[in-house]
Every structure is written in C-alpha cells, then in structure tokens.
Amino acid sequence: MCYNYPSACYSAPIVSYVPFEQTNAEKEIWKSSGDIRVEDVGSYTKVIKDSFFVSQYMDEKYGIDSTAKIKADYSKYSLPLLTHFPYGSPQYKAFEKELRNMGLDCTKYYKIYKMGLALFGEKGCYKLVDLIKRFRGGTTPTL
Known about the structure:
Elements: H1 24-29, H2 40-62, H3 66-76, H4 79-82, H5 90-101, H6 108-136
Helix pairs in contact: 2-3
C-alpha cells in the first residue's frame, strides 16, 4: 500500500520461488499432501489478518477506508481460499469460520462460491464460475 507517493502496478513477478531441502521433521509433517491439521488454520489466516493490521493502521492515520475495499477484494477472489481444505471437513469448517470472522463473507461472490462448493464440489464450482464469467463477459486477473 502506497499512500504518500506515486506508485504503479508491475504485472511481472519480482520475487521467484527457490525450492529448498526440507528437514526430516518437515517431511514428516507434510508427508501426506493436503492433510493439513486444524491447528494450521490459524497460521494460514495469519497472513490475511496481518494485511488487515497494516490497512487498518493506514485507515486510522490517513482517515481513509481501505480495509473494507481490501476485504471485498479478498472476498471476490476467495474461491482458492475456500478450496484449500476439503469441503465439509473439520479443517474447512474451522477455516471458513475464520474467514467469516475476518469479514470476508462480505460479497455475493463468497456466497456463490460457498453454495457452489456445497452443491457441485470443487471442480463443479470452478466450472460454475467459468460459466458465469462467459455469461457476464468477465475475466480472471492474471499476474
């Protein structure tokens, strides 16, 4: 977030991922891909909460309302977040509750994603979103 100085958005990544060797303890924790424990939900949402901490500071300091707009953006693009855990699992329920507590259920998109996951599952929900985009002429932002 840049408030006092001119800024621009750069469409190419400026950070690259370099794989590293995991320790045996890390391999043990992550040995079954996708099997994330409920207690990991808090660490996963910490990044989102931290971004709100920064935006709330900016809101108070400059008298702006950026946090609500950021929450709306997170909400509009929350389908990948909602599909991080298998729908209906204890992890999903805990994670979705955290997202609601953070106020990310503030747009119709979030509600459509939740309903789509419940009715059609992950693949079906993504197909539903693609269908809606084709019908409305929308696009997915690219990085």
